[in-house]
Amino acid sequence: MSREADLDRLYELLIDLEDRVSGKHRLKSCTGYLDWPKRGVYFLFAHDEYRDTDDQHRLTRIGTHAVSSGSGASLWSRLRAHRGANSGTYAGGGNHRGSVFRKHIGKALIERHNLHAEYPYWGDGSSADPNRRLNEHDLERQVSDHIRDLPFLWIDVDDEPGPDSDRAYIEQNAIALVSNFEKDGLDRRNSDWVGAESPRQEIRNPGLWNINHVNGDYDSAFLDRVAEAVKDTTPV
């Protein structure tokens, strides 16, 4: 089958998933009190962009967690890191050093608004002292505003952590399928997409907030595994 046909099938599966879980969620209204599956793969969509062929929201990021052997990360802990803090010192913001997704959006916003002087250390290191985090809080808030409004779905794939897990397999192949990196452009991004100003070519060209796997090939058989997972996924 062609890449276009495989892409159509992926979106059809996501429509089935949306029907099964009674609609897309948004992180601004999600908490850890929901009955999240322990492990899974998430699909984030642009809230204001649609596919070329229909009115379905276009995918903007695909991700999972616990792909290192022994990792204890859960689906909700990964989504919460992307969402940021609801309360406390950094309420409304977050920690981009704990979420590469947040880091990439912040980098693009810095480019768009020429904020290099205000945020010279954005993305540096794996941690930061409280003063630096407070200085970066306004930008963290902008990143949170962007992420929390993105519609998203997830599939329940509860296998053991590791690079050979089904979750890693689905994530890698879904990203490679959706990515437009050095391929015919399918479902191109709008010209005002923030990611178009990312300093990373791997984000600008594929049209995804992903770096890994955007320039890879995909195995269309992964769609059968997605179909199985859709059937196993229940509402939270």
UniProtKB/TrEMBL annotation:
InterPro entries from the UniProt entry: GIY_YIG_3
Domain (GIY-YIG) ranges: 1-234
Top-level taxonomic group: Archaea
Pfam families: GIY_YIG_3
Name of this protein: GIY-YIG domain-containing protein
